[in-house]
Write a structure and sequence with these properties.
heterotetramer; A: 2-enoyl-CoA Hydratase, Chain A, domain 1; 2 domains; globular; B: alpha/beta; 2-enoyl-CoA Hydratase, Chain A, domain 1; eight-stranded mixed sheet; two-stranded antiparallel ribbon; 34% helix; binds zinc ion
Chain lengths: 333, 282, 333, 282
């Protein structure tokens, strides 16, 4: 039984059971008494409750899961998924952004370009990674290497995990808006397959900046949103401009993997191990790897022009509006 | 913002400049293209006025004016807000586009309406921007988009975010067909709009003093509890930092656009034969 | 008789004659005496001497001419040559470099992209223009706009006038080397005609960074060199590592327009008005304009693939070495 | 630089590390690929040694080794300097290239020789660099260039400057054929070489501590009479500023190159069909 360093509020009942089990085990060991029956009972209860809890998480619960400090990050998955990985650095203009990692990886003997937001685990690394908030240099590094991938016919795999793009003055001065826009424009026409997976927080412009691809998946407990729910609640009078009503905004914003799948924003939800990716990174990695492998096999069969036409059409179709002049007078999906 | 000590201004006749506080005679202000004669502050203006200022006499035909917003997320309050936005802006949505002639050059022209929910990019705005860019690509015409936006439309959530990718892809497609794309940033041009189609102009022009930035300065100051130096996130700041080509006063905008279009996209120019071939995808 | 604000050393005899003429004119006017015969004589002498001096300038003299503080700069020629010019700004990455100007101009009713180094005339403008030493942003602005020119099939005209690229730490930090290299690489394959003219100082990497084109000309009294002669003299033991022997280095380095033409580095020398471009900017501009017009007319006739093949071959052929295995066993031009 | 107080070092047996001043046993130093065991200082090495360190056993065939410098400007002293350079470097010129196999991947490999007039780029260096890049383009093979240069060869004046344009054009041509180009910057890589082919690698690798910069720090300090902060113009500085991909210690260089080549340019890869078609010009 993996013990995460921090329990989320909705995990309280599980925490209680785990503590009971531990207490019983300790008591049994200390007094030489057999409590295995009771413990087995508790374990069954734990499993049942886990299933119940984790298959009914609210959008706000999922937000907590997506931000869980133990959640595996891009470099964790890279280590688990790829046979080898050589990280490459720099935008050849200004700097190297540690909030977006990029490099050459080997997936089942095939070379791929891997890009992804990178958060930090401890205080020091968090600062170094700028909490996963990318600067213009990050997007420009990704662009430079994607152009190389295009020339060498190497597919791109992108991991999305960022609260938002860096917005402070220095990022503004170096054109964070331009960098995000140019990266999306490039990806929309890159002549090689692009596979995208949201593994944690898919945070607004910072996320979509490297999330234009042929296949978009989300891990079961990740979120993908135009704005953090708290931010939305703090701005909209709908939620009384009240930062404490983030759970309401989270629900209204439809940010979960299931929501995004239903709306056609993503192609697939990748299930997580019971209790979330952070309880079994290795198993999650296997599921991600299986998805990448299967999806790439399909994409490799497409002629490049068809690949690009499909990709354009995919994003072209996103949006819901009423077009009275359209042949069928109903909302277009 | 308002100064309670001043006498109230009779609506319609006089208007107060939000920058220098001068009381301006509305007719005079209109003659001046809604630029303060005292401090050159450029007022936000409506789409009809903007179009009239830019195109050759009567040379604008709106397209797809019937597109109406849906409520893809069933977001609470959204429909009420749309009703209010429609009333305030006097338009169906926050963006209009159509065929225009500017200085004799057939152009696809799009204009954002900040009065409609802050020019936020919902599905209709994203769709119309995309259609404008695709029309330019398909008819081999230059596209001019006049931007004004507070960013994403939160009530459309992730669907709004996807408009960034959709419009950026349409920009890339327009450019791949060899056609010219000019952006005019007006006050304010920010967030998801700046971080997508607004930053991708071959030539980016901004009006003087316009707020132009990814996050507004107030947001940064509040979130980080810092004080920014004055003048950040303006058209002039962005010019200094290499992000835009020109800051052009409103009274010169038509001339500048006309020259750029007729120099860089004369009507007689044949389709670009050397550029990479665009794949038809519609 | 145009009177430049500063006389160069080799102009001393001319200065003497001009002062004599002025004195005579003043005397004649003051005393009501006719000195026109004497004055006419002096004018003939001045003309003869001018011809003699300016057609026999040493490489060092030419260096002085090329750097003359009254010499017309890029924006001066732009004003005189083009019917209209709209300057465009910014590299979309970091800043706008005033040491390289770029914009859309009209040449005889044809649209062209104009780029060029820009020096400053007075102290303040000199600082603003960084003495014509371009930073990475300048080359990146030029690249951005050349890519637009390519897409819109608009030819490029480049004015070269720089002592050198900016080499200070800030330029290094933002990749001055990469910027120059990338600009040359781009120009070598840009699918539109490129016409280059060295109008003053063609200073090493800073110059060649925007000087890769289909036709390269030099104004008669401009120089084009791998290093400033003083710098060369200060470094090489050949000149005793003595900065004062710049005139010797200038001669050895073969930096004049005639030298460059003889060596096949440039295609054409454009004559300057008697006494140099700064004595008659308008006339010089006419000569430049005639060259651009004639050259572009020729280049427009070439299919783009031929244009590019020629451009590649042009620079490919530069270099002199002995290739014993080559069919003809002599130095290759 | 030298410390006169120390006892003189018997040549051939021991060598002093210029960085940490440790006395190193030459045989040990050679086993260590000429990297100081104390401070990891990477000594400059000759081309033969470099090639032996990088290529598969014996898998290097030099090309065009007979190219000899001319004296295009009739520059005083140049021919004497060439004689001395030849003696010092034990080679005809400052650059050699040829066909190599690295980790099983057929590659065009070029290596600069700093001992020959500071690795300066005269006509022969420029020509050989260009031929190496063209060979990669024509045979569809990756190109690896190991750089070391003080910059232009002043004695060839403007002809030397033109090698920047020539080699940059050859880089662009190689890339347009879709092929991979890797640069290895060794101590020092500067000036005209850095501002042309050395900066154009798809992947740029540098050895630790190598001087890498447009103008050397000493030149800047002398010219501007300022003191630079320590550590500028090094491989690590350039990595920090986004100019290079990797700083790789010499003992890992072969492995890293081998992986990059076999991952990004496997011998079985077909010619790039989607990339823009290169025009044959030779
Ligand atoms: Zn005012
Ligand atoms: Zn040492």
């Amino acid at each position: 039984m993996i013990s995460p360093s921090r329990w989320l509020p909705f995990e309280k009942p599980l925490q209680d059971i785990e503590e009971q089990i531990q207490a019983l085990e300790a008591y049994a060991a200390a007094h030489g008494i057999d409590r295995s029956e009771k413990i087995a009972e508790l374990r069954v209860m734990h499993a049942d409750l886990s299933h119940q809890i984790f298959s009914n998480l609210s959008a706000w619960d999922k937000t907590m899961m997506a931000r869980h400090p133990n959640r595996p990050y891009t470099l964790d998955y890279i280590k688990l998924i790829f046979d080898d990985f050589i990280e490459l650095h720099g935008d050849r203009r200004f700097g190297d952004d540690p909030a977006i990692v990029a490099g050459v990886g080997r997936l089942n003997g095939e070379t791929v370009l891997v890009i992804g937001h990178q958060k930090g685990r401890d205080v020091k690394e968090r600062q170094f990674r700028n909490f996963g908030s990318a600067r213009p240099e990050g997007y420009r590094k990704a662009m430079r290497l994607m152009e190389l991938a295009e020339r060498r016919h190497i597919p791109v795999i992108a991991f999305i995990d960022t609260p938002a793009a860096e917005a402070r003055l220095e990022a503004e001065e170096r054109g964070i808006s331009e960098a995000i826009a140019a990266c999306m424009a490039l990806m929309s026409r890159l002549r090689t397959p692009i596979v995208v997976s949201v593994i944690g927080e898919g945070g607004s412009g910072g996320a979509i900046g490297i999330a234009v691809g042929d296949h978009i998946s989300m891990l079961e407990h990740s979120v993908y949103s135009v704005i953090p729910p708290e931010g939305c609640a703090a701005i909209l009078d709908t939620f009384g401009r009240d930062g404490t009503r983030g759970h309401e905004a989270a629900c209204a914003l439809k940010i979960t993997a299931a929501d995004n799948l239903r709306m056609g924003i993503i192609d697939e939800v990748i299930p997580e191990p019971l209790g979330g990716a952070h309880r079994n990174a290795a198993e999650t990695a296997v599921l991600l790897k299986d998805t990448f492998t299967r999806v790439l096999a399909g994409l490799h069969k497409l002629p490049t022009d068809v690949l690009l036409a499909n990709r354009y059409a995919k994003f072209r179709a996103l949006g819901q509006y009423i077009d009275p002049s359209a042949p069928k007078k109903k909302a277009k999906k | 913002m308002s100064e309670p000590s001043r006498p109230s201004v009779p609506p319609g006749l006089w208007q107060k400049c939000p920058k220098c506080r001068a009381l301006l005679y509305v007719k005079e202000l209109e003659r001046n293209l809604r630029v303060c004669g005292q401090c050159q502050h450029h007022f936000q203006i409506g789409t009809a006025e903007r179009i009239a200022q830019l195109v050759d006499e009567g040379a604008f035909t709106e397209l797809d004016d019937g597109l109406l917003p849906a409520n893809p997320l069933d977001f609470p309050d959204y429909e009420e807000k749309l009703v209010r936005g429609r009333a305030k802006a006097g338009q169906n949505e926050g963006f209009i586009y159509g065929d225009a002639v500017i200085d004799g050059v057939p152009t696809v022209l799009g204009v954002a309406n900040f009065a409609f929910m802050g020019g936020s990019m919902g599905s209709v705005v994203g769709e119309k921007v995309t259609r404008a860019l695709e029309r330019g690509a398909d008819l081999n015409r230059p596209v001019v988009l006049v931007c004004a936006s507070g960013g994403a439309r939160m009530q459309e959530g992730i669907v709004s975010l996807m408009q960034m990718a959709k419009t950026a892809a349409a920009c890339a497609r327009l450019k791949a067909t060899g056609n010219l794309y000019i952006v005019v940033m007006t006050d304010p041009t920010t967030a998801g709009v700046l971080a997508s189609f607004a930053s991708l102009g071959d030539i980016c022009i901004a009006e003087p003093g316009a707020l132009v930035g990814f996050a507004g300065p107030r947001v940064i100051e509040q979130n980080l509890k810092i004080k920014l130096p004055p003048g950040t996130h303006t058209a002039e700041f962005q010019l200094n930092h290499g992000m835009i080509d020109l800051v052009v006063p409103r009274r010169e905008l038509r001339t500048t656009l006309g020259k750029l279009l007729s120099y860089l996209a004369p009507a007689t120019a044949a389709a670009d034969v050397d550029a990479p071939v665009a794949v038809a995808v519609d």
